[in-house]
Specification:
Elements (H helix, E strand, L loop, with lengths): L3 E2 L2 E6 L6 E4 L3 E10 L1 E11 L3 E8 L3 H24 L6 H9 L1 H18 L3 E7 L3 E3 L6 H18 L1 H6 L19 H21 L2 H27 L4 H31 L8 H8 L1 H50 L1
Antiparallel strand pairs: 1-2, 2-3, 3-4, 4-5, 6-7, 7-8
Helix pairs in contact: 1-2, 1-3, 1-8, 3-8, 6-7, 6-10, 7-8, 7-9, 8-10
């Protein structure tokens, strides 16, 4: 779905793109869609900035019930996958393929949705009020992102109603904490660390060295912490959209790697219980993926390692570009202030 067309720029999007909210030059456009998976019907509603009386944002209690639902789905799909691996005979490729093709993608999807749900933060409802009606804006359903959307709408409303504000300043509330575009503080370290991690992973899979496997495990733990903090910062603050998308792409690659690693180690532990005796067991299994897991696991690890490398490189590029752009903007503002 396009992010802009003509004079309009999209500022919010609902689940599966059913509904969306667009900023125009003199009015707000709300596209209200309905359907299943795809919007079968769309209504277009326009709100002139000069006619808007208020925009209300209220937090709702939808974070933990949703998290518990995703956890239940993850537990069910993960349990089925584990059962298929546990009861298969050593060397039974058919049962392994069944576990990889059916419950594993569902478990990976539940894990991804759970992580996304927690990173996006609390849910909310948003309503817009004019002199004639009140309308709920369904695309605005997350509190942190909703604050950005409301701020953008408020800026347009204040500009359109400048005459009213000049006549009666008390009638217009001006926020005291203006939003400024900024990069998540740990975005660069996260991308850099995963660039090193992906190189270590690819080298370890190709060369089969225990040292590289151990380094990959350590870097994975540290990198996941940095990535989740950076991702949360990109959601809770005004952040360049390209940086935010790069973080999501990297997180998706990390979750795919974590899921594949869990399945591989589970398979190895079932075939060889000595893998679970100490930390050297998983390190040894990961250092000889082709010999222990066969060509299928070897190809999967190489593919995900390459995707992780590409996501880290792209994230570094867009983050460095935006850092330079924001630094230049701040320098221009400082020069204008001094002059």
């Amino acid at each position: 779905m396009k992010k802009a067309f003509g004079e309009f720029r999209r500022i919010a999007r609902g689940s599966l793109g059913m509904s969306s909210l667009w900023l125009g030059s003199d009015h707000l456009l709300y596209v209200k869609g309905s359907g299943f998976l795809l919007p079968f019907n769309e209504e277009y509603r326009r709100f002139r900035y000069a006619d808007i009386h208020g925009v209300v944002l209220a937090r709702t209690a939808g974070l933990w019930p949703g998290a518990l639902a995703y956890l239940a789905g993850l537990a069910i799909a993960g349990g089925i996958c584990f059962a298929l691996l546990f009861f298969r005979e050593p060397g039974d490729v058919g049962m392994l393929a069944t576990a990889l093709a059916l419950p594993l993608p569902v478990a990976a999807l539940m894990l991804a949705l759970l992580t996304r749900h927690l990173v996006l933060g609390p849910r909310c409802i948003c309503e817009i009020q004019t002199g004639l009606r009140r309308e709920r804006l369904r695309p605005v359903n997350r509190l942190h992102r909703g604050r950005e959307v409301v701020r953008e709408i408020a800026d347009r409303v204040r500009a359109a109603q400048a005459d009213l504000a000049a006549a009666d300043p008390a009638s217009v509330t001006v926020p005291t904490d203006p939003l400024t575009m900024r990069l998540p503080g740990l975005a660069l370290p996260a991308f850099g660390l995963y660039l090193i991690l992906s190189g270590s992973l690819l080298a370890g899979v190709a060369l089969g060295q225990a040292t590289l496997a151990a380094a990959t495990i350590v870097l994975s733990v540290a990198g996941l912490v940095l990535l989740l903090i950076a991702q949360a910062g990109s959601v809770r603050h005004l952040c360049p959209e390209s940086v935010r998308q790069a973080l999501w792409a990297l997180l998706a690659s990390v979750l795919a790697l974590a899921t594949l690693t869990a399945v591989y180690l589970t398979d190895q532990a079932i075939n060889d219980p000595s893998v679970t005796l100490d930390l050297m067991g998983p390190i040894g299994a990961l250092s000889d993926i082709r010999g222990r897991g066969g060509l299928a696991f070897h190809a999967l690890f190489l593919s995900i390692g390459a995707a992780l490398f590409a996501a880290a490189i792209a994230g570094l590029a867009v983050t460095l570009r935006w850092r330079g752009r924001l630094t230049r903007q701040q320098g221009t503002i400082a020069d204008q202030t001094l002059s």
